[in-house]
User: Fold these one by one.
Assistant:
Number 1:
Amino acid sequence: MMNKPQALHNSLTGIKGLVFNEPLLFEMGSPGRTAYSLPKCDVPEVELEAILPATEIRNPIDNLPELTELDVVRHFTRLSQWNFSIDTNFYPLGSCTMKYNPKVNNETANLSGFAQHHPYTPETLSQGSLQLMFELQEYLKEISGMAHVSLQPAAGAHGELAGMLMIHAYHSTQGTQRKKVILPDSAHGTNPASAALCGYSVIQIQSDERGLIDPKKLESIMDEETAAIMLTNPNTLGIFETDILKISEIVHSKGGLVYCDGANLNAIMGKTKLNRMGVDVLHFNLHKTFSTPHGGGGPGAGPIGVAEKLSPFLPKPIIEHADGKYTLNHDRPDSIGKMKAFYGNFGILVRAYTYIRSLGPEGIKQVAEMAVLNANYIKASLYKHYHLPYNGPSLHECVFNDKLQLKNKVSTMDIAKMLIDYGFHPPTVYFPLVVKGALMIEPTETESKETLDDFIVTMKKIAELAETKPEVFHGAPHMPVVSRPDEITAARNPKLRWKPERSELS
Ligand SMILES: *Cc1c(COP(=O)(O)O)cnc(C)c1O
């Protein structure tokens, strides 16, 4: 199984150690094995049917595997070792800001006063948790320059929805509701989805040759039927929208609002503030910028920040602080309502709070500087080996494509898969859509120069292989237990209720 192709021999090893071809639980075990041992029953045994109504008793399950505790522990521990995580290696997944999650964040989130604090505890007995949330809001206000922050939304996309609902509520109070939202073609897919969910039609604006929004083009499509522009700054090409002041002026002059997708805040935090750019609504991704865990379906957190004029519409309740007491105010008649049960994903908020407190203002600024430096180091090291469609100054990520490699029929997907053989998580691929065959690399600030150099050497090696031995890309990755799963079938037709026949298992 571990057929390491000749061409891959260099000082960088791929997956090392003992990797087993793990059977399914259904293929293991033996009748009569159990994962528990209980003392002999000292009361008379009765049949289940004698004490429970038939409707409450489930049917027997066929082929339920019978296993010992050790069988189960080994099975799941081995599977967990097939996983790739930020704790195992470099994860330059562009736009996702896969920075290291410091363990101290987990320590504080696990303090029993936080972890075991029941959300129905009365406010008077919840002062510490309320204070933490209030202060986290204050920090996010300070970092972004926004007038108010709500911590409720559970992810970036959820923050976008909350923000668009607030924009919708705002226009409702201005007389007539508007119909359109303008988005650049480099936008993340969640942006048009959030606008559409609020009933807006999405108007796309093409990026210019710099990869930016052209104010002249914007001026020609912005009108009084447009509710807002949704942009990302720096944008998904890693480039700062240099005309942002002109852009927000154009939108505001027609009564529209500026929504900023804050997923790329890592590049600019501590250096500038979004309110200075005319932003009216911003979402934060705590699981990107603020080092809380990312992936696996959450939980994440996507707080929103708003300008003063949108404050009546904030999700309720809001946390207030007066006379040394923290309280929750539910009396908010213009609020868009609740976005999340209780107050959001509290454990994630504790982690982000810890991160901000442990860095302090200087540390926050250094994060942005190092993130930009690392991305530019990679860009400067690789631009002769991979095509750079937009070669202007860039910030925290760089976007290459496969133009040079396609001559030898090696595509972005092949390059991404080959990186797995060298022990690296692939960059984001085929996004943003404005770059054909995009390879979007975001190293983040937490990586050492040694790690970046390993990655750069590998990327150069892969570019060389694409020239000299393009055939080795067929079937890459060669090292992992599973090579190229059919991702589309897995997503569209997942087999969730597979009941194997014994014959299928052998
Ligand atoms: C990650 C991301 C989002 C969505 O955030 P989630 O927390 O994954 O919902 C939106 N926009 C951009 C640019 C992103 O990178």
Number 2:
Amino acid sequence: MKSKNLFYYLAITIGTSSLLYRSFQLIKKKFFLKRKVYLNGLSCSFPLNCYSQDEMKEMFIENYCGGKENLLEKDFDFIQRVFQASCIDTSYVNLSKNNLFKRMKREEYTNYVKQTLIEISCKSAKNAIENCLHLNSNEITHIIFGTMTGTIAAPSMDIHLVKELQLNSNIKRLNVESMGCLTGFRLIGLCNDIALQDENNIVLLIVSDIRSALGNQLTPFESNQPIDKSNVIISALFRDSSGAAIFSQKAIFSNELSYCHILKHQSTIIPDTIELGRLKEFNDSSIHLYLDKQLPYAVFDALPNFVSKLLNEYQIDIYHCQFAVHTGGPKIIRGIKECLNLDDEQLCSSWYVMTHYGNLSGSSNLVVLEHFCRWKYSENKPNEKGICFPKDFNRYKYIVGLSFGPGIAVEGVLFQLE
Ligand SMILES: *[C@@H]1O[C@H](CO)[C@@H](O)[C@H](O)[C@H]1NC(C)=O
Ligand SMILES: *[C@@H]1O[C@H](CO)[C@@H](O)[C@H](O)[C@H]1NC(C)=O
Ligand SMILES: *[C@@H]1O[C@H](CO)[C@@H](O)[C@H](O)[C@H]1NC(C)=O
């Protein structure tokens, strides 16, 4: 009799506690799912000298080719066409005009890119910290630095930035290089994961690139020989910038830009495309970038599925999404508009950044995002010939960040605007 009672007692206790445990797990999951990571203080910066695309072209012909007289007629035409078709009006490079596209010795190159990276990174990081009212920079727990402008050098850039910005010496650091134009959105995904882990985590992200310096390290030009077309394209498109943001579960120290949180982050490698984009260094320390003509099409093929997967979980209507796309050139932006069936205005910040600053590699991701968020919450809406801006910014409740890089790989981040 007694042992039977004990059996019932045990059974009930175990039953109830497992029920309690399961409800607890459910509540925990629900609570966990509800936690949000905010994008605070988003900021960007550029080197000091502003050049028109015509000035860049003129200096490319002058300094890289040694003047028009060294060029074959058809190559001269090709240069004219590529610089024109880039859709870039202005861009920012730290070099003086005479030094644009001038070949640098390896050491001169590494010193120049490293120093410039530190300067523009500090500028955007300081602005991001200042934008977060009430944030003491001492409270930042993690720093992530990303760039495609890598060199063989140590200590790595994150340490220099900790020192320059006088951050806490116990800060957890990470330095990410060579992932290409998708760096910004990949690292936003990472910062989201770190911030989700603990409500006290405050993560500073900085992504910077000095891509115009590829133009100072081109494989040599030979007088009156056919020009390497890749070198023309690189020189016409790649420019410099830095973006920074701070990630945390609290939006308490926010300015107007931080009513933006991350819903989802997604990555993929497109099968059989590893040969389509490669960057290589040669014996004479020149750097060569190869981009296959098929590269954009591989991206356009993969994108519709990738984007519906990103939106489906939250049943989001693409109509309410603004697209912050890597500024990889007019062909990329146009192709994305077509393959996703978008209105021109859904890509307004990508077009704006493309024409005002150029192909910024991985740092473009944050720069494009920053422009749209700023416009959305500001009284002053942009207005400019040639770019189609939203008639009603209230249409946009989400931003889809999309970027592509060597692999060929795609990164997507879904942001919700509040
Ligand atoms: C960038 O330009 C500014 C202003 O011309 C100059 O003070 C600074 O030293 C330059 N930085 C590098 C690394 O060249
Ligand atoms: C670089 O040097 C190595 C060793 O001398 C040689 O095998 C290779 O072909 C060189 N590469 C080029 C592009 O000249
Ligand atoms: C812009 O830069 C990235 C490499 O960083 C490249 O994948 C993309 O194709 C470039 N765009 C053009 C048109 O060169």
